[in-house]
């Protein structure tokens, strides 16, 4: 038996005997090399073999972890399978459903488990408002031309600096400030595709992506997506070989609603595939700052060498949702996106841009983010444990690596819209799965928001949801 095979066998036995538990981190490559007196190459070969066998999984910037086995994970409510959507393009009609469910969030003082927005109490509202007031006092007369695209130079410099701090060199001239990430996504999609075109998306996918497609009169084809690894590059390649795809819209980091983080290897492979077919990617990176690991995740933009990735983001999920400040890094489509920005909304107000720019320059943004990440990571574990405890047997949940939403697959033939309406009567909101697809594939799923501090009210809401689900069964 070769050395790496012996190590594979030893680790496999430790997992089988329960010495290493599902979800538990295993020693790093360097630690194992030192402990077993093996070369790093030998250990890496063993870990790659174990990963291929499904015994362990790598998490970017975090190391290797024991992967939940299907039987164990199903019993514990941990394991989900990759989706298998139809490869046939379809029209999109989700906006009416999304609007009605979002309106319900603020009604009747409901527990906002269905909210797509983070808990605003974690945002530094007071400091940002102070900067906004100072900006207004300094600029008693405002020239409209100061608001024109691409945006305020001070904010653009701070955005570029933030990317640099996270390991990505960004040309400030590429940045176009928008009214939130939603406008950035809409502008980028409009720049690369036309009505009637087909756009490839993850399945399930964030409904804001679907709404952008619906707004522009395009179609979507949903691509098989693994709840741990992200969009299937193999399935996407098959689809692209069979039909014309105008663009691909993805969330590689902490996807809403599944919460996964694609590995660097798969991100690189995705960009390479798209470059081969000359198909642009619209990357939604609004949750990139909300990671639970030790280091900031890479983006598709990190591997873009031909300007094919249009990266969109905002401060709405990490700093302040009130100001609605986002941006796009539009690559080779930069000129077109800037023109569309001017035609669509003319400009983004400079007051919120300057307020955020001064906060980034003078206050502890990173310290704020560390507090937020720690809170979300802790609340993610509590929410997952509560769902496993109070929801009926057969419930499966996602394993988010960042962000603040949990995807729940309910047992049986439960219609999440009926659950949504019944829960709303009890002053609880949930995100029904039908919002995240053009098909009925996720009608038995719901999305839960865990950004709000765990409280008696939230716990009672989870307990009551579990009882309602059991009644439906």
Automatic annotation (TrEMBL):
<keyword id="KW-0663">Pyridoxal phosphate</keyword>
<keyword id="KW-0804">Transcription</keyword>
<feature type="domain" description="HTH gntR-type">
    <location>
        <begin position="1"/>
        <end position="69"/>
    </location>
</feature>
<keyword id="KW-0805">Transcription regulation</keyword>
<keyword id="KW-0238">DNA-binding</keyword>
<dbReference type="Pfam" id="PF00392">
    <property type="entry name" value="GntR"/>
</dbReference>
<comment type="similarity">
    <text>In the C-terminal section; belongs to the class-I pyridoxal-phosphate-dependent aminotransferase family.</text>
</comment>
<dbReference type="GO" id="GO:0008483">
    <property type="term" value="F:transaminase activity"/>
</dbReference>
<protein>
    <submittedName>
        <fullName>PLP-dependent aminotransferase family protein</fullName>
    </submittedName>
</protein>
<dbReference type="InterPro" id="IPR000524">
    <property type="entry name" value="Tscrpt_reg_HTH_GntR"/>
</dbReference>
<dbReference type="InterPro" id="IPR036388">
    <property type="entry name" value="WH-like_DNA-bd_sf"/>
</dbReference>
<keyword id="KW-0032">Aminotransferase</keyword>
<dbReference type="Pfam" id="PF00155">
    <property type="entry name" value="Aminotran_1_2"/>
</dbReference>
<dbReference type="InterPro" id="IPR004839">
    <property type="entry name" value="Aminotransferase_I/II_large"/>
</dbReference>
<dbReference type="InterPro" id="IPR015421">
    <property type="entry name" value="PyrdxlP-dep_Trfase_major"/>
</dbReference>
<dbReference type="InterPro" id="IPR015422">
    <property type="entry name" value="PyrdxlP-dep_Trfase_small"/>
</dbReference>
<dbReference type="InterPro" id="IPR051446">
    <property type="entry name" value="HTH_trans_reg/aminotransferase"/>
</dbReference>
<keyword id="KW-0808">Transferase</keyword>
<dbReference type="InterPro" id="IPR036390">
    <property type="entry name" value="WH_DNA-bd_sf"/>
</dbReference>
<dbReference type="InterPro" id="IPR015424">
    <property type="entry name" value="PyrdxlP-dep_Trfase"/>
</dbReference>
